């Protein structure tokens, strides 16, 4: 018994050290955001601030349009998420339940798009979007991402697992496909839809290269671009920048806490079933 | 992945309920029509933003372009020969391969160790599990700025901590022999959350009874891990490796924010190089040629991984 307990304390010790190392960049950020400018520029660096100095946050809100960045990211990510849910759920229903010529061919076409890295299409897409005058616009940030082969595949796999008898019964009752889709398939697939929702929101939230290419105006920048530009602007006091980081991390943190479960479920299904 | 692709079996027909052949035919046409309507939004978007650009990339790669992206002169495969004979391209290919080597094995092994240590149902484990998945909340833009401060040339808190163990200050981002390692270190940290979550759910999906029976058979912790856990979570291991390699190939933001490809091109990853050619120097043709080469490399690598990796993967 005593061996077991000492085993366990070694385990906890190892885990605590690992946690400290992994959390260090975040704790450092949090701690610096409360330091005064003098404290954050001191060497040797201070680990903890002398007090809670909230002035960095007010300074940051005055100089950096953080709220604007967050709003932009939120609008763009939400629109992409909703768009992907609709287009993927429609396409997945067709592939799972409808009979039509060219199904196998079209499905392979969908799957093949997952192989095309975004970087290959980025140059022509930039030229297209620019020719439509979509630079510095929400539609330019949103529309190219509204369809998702991954989402279609994920939902189709889920739809195929739903009990078939239900649909037979609904058909016998005279339900059309649109009603079956809306009233039966979608409500029964909430877990898969939740996985796709979290996944697409998170990926568009952290999208960097595309917004960098097609936004020039500060008012259209998303979180990722806005934060990356901080270093070039007059704000060079690190504690103010880090206060910005803390503010920007808050929404992602909430999202992680809310979305972790459905995401893990989805990833696990993908990883285990291959 | 292919083996799960099962085309839906045709719905069983119930001839007794069919009143006439005309309504059956109408139903069939209705179904076809609806199918194409349901596929249309995705197909249109893929057409405009994936297939057309793919073909346009091939087209652009054979031309010289003006800064507006208009083609100026047909030059055949000159862009490709230029790329394939330029030392800049081979340098960035080499840098990318080194980057994969630095980030993928480290990231996978670290996540595996953390998951193996923290999967048990003990008091406080949920908290550790939350801590280890936290980097997932940090996106690459935000993470890069945090590490930019940690790597600061004069105020680096990392150098300060290293000074306690007698290691002299490192010029993390400005020393050509350190810059790529610094970028890799930051990337490993950034991806740890995702890798850890996949590994953890892999380990947790191995039945508790298996561990119990191994324990009863007198198998030690290490033996159990290597003989039972590792083979059973090989699908998760494989998944994480494939995803990590692809994402390493596509890394861009950390380089753009932290080093701009320097010092002395030591962090000039492929995608950053493409970005430079296309959007800084406005050489869309040569950028497209490089992007297509990247596409071929990623495709080949993924095929090779599936060919050789899948054999060793044990699916339950």
CATH class of chain B: Mainly Alpha
CATH superfamily of chain A: MetI-like
Which quaternary structure do these chains form? heterodimer
- Poorly predicted runs of chain B are 1-9, 12-18
Strand segment count of chain B? 2
Distance between the amino and carboxyl termini of chain A: 41 Å
Number of helices of chain A: 14
Strand percent estimate of chain A: under 5%
> Could you tell me how far the N terminus lies from the C terminus of chain B, measured between alpha carbons in angstroms?
14 Å
Radius of gyration of chain A: 24 Å
CATH architecture label of chain A: Orthogonal Bundle
H/E element order of chain A? HHHHHHHHHHHHHH
The description of the largest β-sheet of chain B is:
2 strands, antiparallel
List the helices and strands and how they pair.
The complex is a heterodimer of chains A (274) and B (316).
Chain A: H1 2-32, H2 37-40, H3 55-63, H4 66-97, H5 103-113, H6 118-131, H7 138-142, H8 149-161, H9 164-172, H10 177-188, H11 190-205, H12 209-214, H13 223-229, H14 238-273
Chain B: H1 21-60, E1 63-65, E2 71-74, H2 78-85, H3 87-118, H4 125-133, H5 140-150, H6 157-164, H7 176-205, H8 208-216, H9 221-232, H10 234-249, H11 253-258, H12 270-280, H13 284-312
Antiparallel strand pairs in B: 1-2
Pfam families (chain B): BPD_transp_1 (PF00528)
Domain ABC transmembrane type-1 (chain B): 89-305
Membrane topology (chain B): Multi-pass membrane protein
Report on the architecture of this protein:
The complex is a heterodimer of chains A (274) and B (316). Helices cover 75% and strands 0% of the residues of chain A. Chain A is mainly alpha-helical and 274 residues long. In chain A, helix 3 (55-63) crosses helix 14 and helix 8 runs antiparallel to helix 11 (190-205). In chain B, helix 2 (78-85) crosses helix 13, helix 7 packs antiparallel against helix 10 and helix 10 (234-249) packs antiparallel against helix 13. In chain B, strands 1-2 form a two-stranded antiparallel ribbon. Helices cover 70% and strands 2% of the residues of chain B. By secondary structure, chain B is mainly α. Chain B has one domain (85-312): Orthogonal Bundle (MetI-like fold), CATH 1.10.3720. Chain B is flat, with a radius of gyration of 26 Å. The two termini of chain B are 14 Å apart. Chain B has helices at residues 21-60, 78-85, 87-118, 125-133, 140-150, 157-164, 176-205, 208-216, 221-232, 234-249, 253-258, 270-280, 284-312; strands at residues 63-65, 71-74. The interface between A and B is large, with 105 and 104 residues.
